[in-house]
Specification:
Family: Belongs to the LysR transcriptional regulatory family.
Protein name: Peptidase
Shape: globular
Structural class: alpha/beta
Distance between the termini: 65 Å
CATH superfamily of one domain: Winged helix-like DNA-binding domain superfamily/Winged helix DNA-binding domain
Keywords: DNA-binding, Transcription, Transcription regulation
Largest sheet: 5 strands, mixed
Helix content: 25-40%
Number of helices: 10
CATH architecture of one domain: Orthogonal Bundle
Order of helices and strands: HHHEEHEHEHEEEEHEHEEEHHEE
InterPro entries: LysR_HTH_N, LysR_subst-bd, WH-like_DNA-bd_sf, WH_DNA-bd_sf
GO molecular function, one term: DNA binding
Radius of gyration: 25 Å
Length: about 375
């Protein structure tokens, strides 16, 4: 027997309710039928998925493994059907569509605002995902039109054949988020050694994040304790001083949480946009670029970094730490020098114009 989505849905229902009787009622079938179906599923996967106890059904170790893969598939299938129905309904009335997928970014609100202003008759949808690779695959499969993603340094993304891409920023430095009363916040730039005793937090489901953090800490000679969790939870733990975490430079500090550049910029990401055609990229890129630099201008820490207040060397200002440098020598690679250039006012509904264009320019 081949497993189908209905089988996975049944497993999730049994796990959620903890009872074959309740699960059968939720699924609209009889308990004997569900019991028979469960036996067939267990035979197909080669082992028992639930331990039957007097108090109900409890997933076995094999059951937990199967459920960890089944739940996302059930959710995705439900979303696929919902999206397909919505798409069909919009297609019937001839409304143009723009389906955007993105990893987390503070540029998203400004990007959508600008697109709405420039394309008022277009129905724009947004799908957020922690996996850049998953979003790129969705563009290739025709489920999305555009994907705005980040690629962690040293962890290249798998770009499907046939996609066109455009790099928004070749290397965006990653900053650190820490409690506002952390001793390291007394400095404008934090060295990794200042955080040697801290516990870090990372979301391992984000493509490349865990590998990037490990590499950064290893190169600094650090082996701190690391918690795994989502970044929404991380923000709460950072504010209470439980953890520190890598964050985007466009992040804005709060009264209980500070954002600081890391000395030497030891971790970076590349920001890129992908689509199936160059025309689709051209249609959205300008608005995204403007929105990104608007978000950058709203972050004091990133403004300071862009306007040249960052150090030239890696942690502890030691020569030779930069790739290609030897002790006593300086890198010959040109350093981006940001130039402040006035920008024109945006359309009326886009809020106040930013006073500076913070985009780095090689001089």
């Amino acid at each position: 027997m081949e497993l189908e989505v209905r089988h996975l849905r049944a497993l999730c229902a049994i796990a959620d309710t903890g009872s074959l009787h309740k699960a059968a009622r939720q699924l609209g079938m009889s308990q004997p039928s569900l019991t028979t179906q469960l036996r067939r599923i267990e035979h197909a996967v080669g082992g028992q998925l639930f331990a039957r106890e007097r108090t109900g059904c409890r997933p076995t170790p094999l059951g937990r493994v199967v459920l960890s893969r089944a739940r996302p598939l059930v959710v995705e299938m439900r979303a696929l059907v919902t999206e397909a129905r919505a798409t069909a309904a919009r297609a019937d009335d001839g409304t143009p569509q723009l389906r955007i997928g993105s990893t987390a970014s503070r540029a998203i609100p400004g990007w959508l605002r600008r697109l709405r202003h420039r394309m008022p008759g277009t129905e724009t949808s947004l799908q957020m995902d922690v996996s850049a690779n998953a979003l790129l695959q969705m563009v290739a499969a025709g489920q999305l039109d555009i994907a705005f993603v980040h690629e962690v340094e040293g962890c290249p993304l798998r770009l499907p054949d046939g996609l066109r891409r455009r790099v928004l920023l070749d290397r965006e430095p990653q900053f650190v988020s820490l409690a506002a009363d952390h001793p390291a916040t007394r400095k404008d730039v934090v060295h990794l050694t200042d955080l040697a005793e801290d516990r870090w937090m990372v979301d391992p489901t984000v493509d490349g994040e865990w590998d990037g953090l490990q590499r950064m800490l290893r190169e600094a000679g650090l082996n701190p304790r690391v918690l795994h969790g989502d970044y929404l939870t991380a923000a709460t733990l950072v504010a209470t001083g439980e953890v520190v975490t890598v964050c985007q430079p466009t992040s804005v500090a709060r009264p209980d949480m500070a954002v600081r550049p890391l000395a030497g910029d030891p971790l970076g990401v590349r920001l890129l946009v992908a689509a199936r055609t160059t025309a689709e990229l051209d249609a959205v890129y300008g608005e995204l670029e403007a929105a990104y630099w608007e978000a950058a201008a709203e972050s004091p820490a990133y403004q300071g970094w862009l306007l040249g207040s960052r150090p030239d060397t890696r942690p502890d200002d030691r020569p030779g730490d930069r790739p290609g440098d030897r002790p006593g020598e300086r890198s010959t690679t040109p350093v981006p020098v940001p130039v402040a250039v006035p920008v024109s006012a945006p359309p009326p509904d886009l809020g106040p114009a930013t006073s500076q264009d913070l985009r780095p320019t090689l001089l």
